[in-house]
Amino acid sequence: IKMLTGRQFGTCFLIMLVTGALLIATTQILPQLLQEEFGYTATLAGLAISPGGAVTMVMMVVVGRLGFVQPRYLIAVGAAIACYAMVDLLRINPDSDYWYFAWSRIYLGIGLPLIFIPITTASYDGISPSKTDQASALINLARNFGGSMGVALSQTVLARREQFHQSRLVEHLGSWNPFYNDTLNRIQGYLNGRAATGSSSGTGLAIINQMVQSQATLLAYIDVFVALGVIAVVMVPLALTLRAVNRSAGSKSAH
User: Fold this and answer.
1) Residue 2: what pLDDT?
2) Residue 7, exposed/middle/buried by CB under 10 A (0-12, 13-18, 19+)?
3) Which residues of the chain have pLDDT under 70?
4) How many CB atoms lie within 10 A of CB 186?
5) Predicted local confidence at residue 254, as pLDDT
6) Which residues of 53-85 are buried (b: 16+ CB within 10 A; e: fewer)?
7) What pLDDT does 252 receive?
8) What whole-number distance in Å separates Cα of residue 245 and Cα of residue 124?
9) pLDDT of residue 9
10) What pLDDT sits at residue 199?
11) What residues have CB less than 8 Å from 206, skipping those under 6 apart?
């Protein structure tokens, strides 16, 4: 508890908490989105986020060579890139393709290593050698606990905002709305044409209901990325409050 109340280590703990939330939440929510709304198989959804993993491995090597840069600056840059990755996902639409999602994960794969490695150096600054094991355990706890919190947050926001958007979209459906009438007539005309060939299925109202549900779900996912982007941007000022680390003393590695 004493370590957590310290400004340096406590701030590092909070940053790692948020980093874990971003990493695990996006790893869970993106494949879910791809499978539910874009019809991807589980394999293809996994492949969509795999380029980000390859970039992360490369960035781990790159960041390891940036030891001359103060950790707080690397963390701030990494947090800003992670925030950009969330902002980029706000452009999502029904026509978004495979590489759109792959690039969003690549951006995150660039940003997170800039946080993971420097946060270790920054968190051990001022910690006595006898307490490094405790510090390592707490930082790992922050990442895992943050991941659980991120998944819970994303799923809660998704469920509640989906209901919200659906109720708002339904308010615009009615015979008084000329756009609704025009859409319904076009769909019904298309279905009548298919009925003549014996290949029609469903009704115009059912198709419109499906469209509303799909749009509400997509808007809810955008709200999830907004929430994750907000907590990502919080890391930037937090990182800049960290004190400069004495690099001459060397850095200790976590377990």
Assistant:
1) 66
2) exposed
3) 1-2, 194-202, 247-255
4) 11
5) 42
6) eebbeebeeebeeeeeebbbbbbbbbbbbbbbb
7) 44
8) 9
9) 86
10) 47
11) none
- Contact in structure between 107 and 88 (CB atoms under 8 Å): yes
Amino acid sitting at position 130? S
Pick from 98, 73, 79, 126: which is nearest to 251 by CA?
A: 126
Q: Which residue has the tokens 């003549």?
A: 196
**98-111 and 7-37 are packed helices; what angle lies between their axes, rounded to 10 degrees?**
170
246: left (phi over 0), alpha (psi -120 to 50) or beta: beta
Q: Of 221, 249, 240, whose CA–CA distance to 34 is shortest?
A: 221
Say how far residue 41 (Cα) sits from the centre of its chain: 20
Structure confidence at residue 156 (pLDDT): 95
Q: Please tell me the predicted confidence (pLDDT) of residue 253.
A: 43
CA distance 200 to 75: 57
